[in-house]
Fold Inorganic pyrophosphatase.
Amino acid sequence: MVNLWEDLETGPNPPEEIYAVVECLKGERNKYEYDKDIPGVMLDRVLHSNVHYPSDYGFIPQSYYDDEDPFDVLVLVKDQTFPGCVVEARPVALMEMDDDGEKDDKVIAVPTEDPRYDHVEDLDDLTQQKKDEIEEFFETYKNLEEGKQVEVLGWDDKAAAKDAIEHAMDLYEEEFQ
């Protein structure tokens, strides 16, 4: 069986084009996580707060970030996909975040095969409303979980997202190769 974190390449042309393995779905409260030991997608929990994912959310294969997890990616989609779906995507921004004292940044990406996102190339192409919705979700989704604190620290552009992806690829290489 293919392990989507270890066996799948980071992308067809990283960091310009990456693969995103979807775990959580736009519009849902289920928090799925890929378990590399099974390998498969498991239900981790249902979000305690009355919020839902603003878009499909998952991780970048063969990446490892400062929080000691695969690097997180939010792929902007019009319609949800499914847990375990692999989406070819272009990074367009980086949302910097602190999750219980750990750096837990998120790459914001768009599908390469959806013409509705052809015009989205960088942070400035995202509407303020879209950034506000994403930020609001990540600042509140753990509010009702005891002892959890999340803070969005700010936004950065496509270049920063690509740098962060390269950093995550390097950490993966150091740790697992």
